[in-house]
């Protein structure tokens, strides 16, 4: 048996026998992270680790990744791998730019979704109807989207005030909510610098100050996705298509129709992610704005084991590290090094306790090396802080991928009538 | 009529029909976009499809050389069902390494060039090897891993460039030290005039193409690689270590990817700076698909892409149309090529079935050996 064989197919005992996490694990996780970051701030003195500004920026960075990941979730749950998310996001940024400028903020949102769906439509036609390899189709969509958006931008934005070949004019804002008195009170509390209390105040303050309605909408979409996919018969059928299309078809599910719908929804969500980037994360459409977030969203979804709650955790992780890279990145990422070192050492001890000596030693060496690095340097250079989310993605996938289980028929081409 | 023709002739015709159909379809879709946007369709195509000037011919060949190497690098992975989306990062890391080594000029003349190329290949192979290793030992999808490595390469090269860079006089751009005159690879003229020089690295690219063909079709390793690509379980059953093949294939792919930036480095730029051309890796994916992973097919694909790129340059001046329109054509070609191969394959299958059915009808009741003969042909 080769290594890849054992890796790609988890042992039956491992998945079934493992205790399932309780329903409220995200809350526990959030509390642990809050406490951990408070301690870390106390130890290292890196003040920006959990200020309300950081939390706010993290939310803004998290949402596009999460929306792209949601897009991936919809399509992969129906068995279609969607590496074209990046291209659909790019189309979304243009849609927001064009429709947002000409017809107002919410038209921009709709435009982003519609253009993303156009990308999804191409992917659906290629993969579902013509049986093109999913990754090839996705790569093609990414190439087309880049070219199409550059062409369209120089066609439609040149000559407009502030517009040009690579950017749109400034776009109107989507409404944001601020609860004034509460925000001020929490601001005072945050400024008092009390252990843990200021951190909690910072998080709450970020949630009541200048919170864009699109952020709220996006988080709602996450909940809606969970409810639809796991609590309705439509969702059950859609997921059955991704697990075993032949079985689904044999009980009368219109497999291709479900796949088609899933990829369209996926495109719409990715388009919305692009629209968010253009309208909320910045103030206009710019060429190359997505910066690989579609791929990161896909990685976040894989990290989250093809589930909404895991996806939220994953995009939070990437959003947070991305934010740290941008805000006083040097000292914050430096502080984070210590946290990762301690985490690696703790994991190493746990692995040794479980008699997984080899993995334990590897983790131990990594932990010690990171600790040494932390002590050796005072600040992480800027180029490295910008790499953090990508390095974290690789590390996380390297250590977590064995515990993940993707939909059984993910990426496989299904032709109607295969059930016999 | 068709069923009367020699089946081999039919197969050849179908093989040519697919790419032609794809290109025609891509041109049609691009025209549609132009019409919808209100741009002059006729003028665009007459500009793009005119016969290139000698200067443009040289540019096309130069660009095609670079794209060809990129396509071969991707194709090696494809033959094993590995998607090396990381050619982009691999060639940037490798070109930087080559420029840094060649700029130091530890060895005289062409020895320096060889050393730099070796360094590039090693670095490219190692960079791609990370993704191979993650896939083989930890089951991480190489698609995600190589994409992440692309981004990491960007940061890493930017950081290292700042460490070793010298600021060239009268310019703001950072770059490695200039490669000494004696270590550059001279070009050769294909016409009159100064701007018609073609990269000497072209010959290396041809050699790489031949080497690719030989490695895959005439060696044990190539057989193992293709077998693993066709069926993982069959490969395991015949004693191939899939993990080792994954790492090996990724490293060779990365080693070839390392060459992508070198024609530009040794024939034109002579140093690696922050403005070094990027994005060549993604074009390689499209070209490998277009050429069906065949060394000659990839060459034709690379020429087509380079032709479209070069000929679209004057579009802005002549027809007031953004040259980015050809990016749409190129992307659409990738899709239409795959779709038309699939359509043609299904059509060919139907033809074959009809032919066999006709033969069966003719021979069925009397001679039972006839049907078995022809059904074998179907499965072949």
Main sheet of chain A? 2 strands, antiparallel
Total beta strands of chain A: 2
Structural Rg of chain B: 24 Å
CATH architecture of the domain at 46-324 in chain A: Orthogonal Bundle
Low-confidence parts of chain B? 370-380
H/E topology pattern of chain B: HHHHHHEEEEHHHHHHHHHH
Fraction of residues in helix of chain A? over 70%
The overall number of domains of chain B is: 2
Strand order of the largest sheet of chain A: 1-2
Helix count from the secondary structure assignment of chain A: 18
Terminal CA distance of chain A reads 32 Å
Q: How large a portion of the residues of chain B is in β-strands, by DSSP E?
A: under 5%
* Shape, per Cα inertia axes of chain A: globular
Helical percentage of chain B: over 70%
Main beta-sheet annotation of chain B: 2 strands, antiparallel
Rough shape of chain B?
A: globular
Q: What is the name of the CATH class of the largest domain in chain B?
A: Mainly Alpha
Average pLDDT of chain A works out at: 83
Across the major sheet of chain B, the strand order is 1-2
Please tell me about this protein's structure.
The complex is a heterodimer of chains A (420) and B (380). Chain A is mostly helical and 420 residues long. Chain A has a domain at 46-324: ABC transporter involved in vitamin B12 uptake, BtuC, CATH 1.10.3470. Chain A is built from 18 helices and 2 strands. Chain A has helices at residues 3-8, 12-17, 25-44, 52-77, 85-103, 105-129, 134-156, 180-191, 197-208, 213-231, 233-243, 245-250, 255-281, 293-303, 308-326, 329-353, 357-376, 382-400; strands at 176-177, 211-212. Chain A has a two-stranded antiparallel sheet with strand order 1-2. The longest helix of chain A has 27 residues, at 255-281. Chain A starts with a helix and ends in a 20-residue tail after the last helix. The model of chain A is unreliable at 1-17 (pLDDT under 50). Chain B has 16 helices and 4 strands. In chain B, strand 3 (188-189) and strand 4 form a beta hairpin. Chain B has 2 domains: 1-39 and 323-358, no CATH class; 56-320, ABC transporter involved in vitamin B12 uptake, BtuC. In chain B, the strands form 2 sheets. A two-stranded antiparallel ribbon of chain B has the order 1-2. Chain B has a two-stranded antiparallel sheet with strand order 3-4. Chain B is mostly helical and 380 residues long. Classes of the chains: A mainly alpha (420), B mainly alpha (380). Chains A and B meet through helix 1, helix 7, helix 14 and helix 18 of A and helix 5, helix 6, helix 10, helix 12 and helix 15 of B.
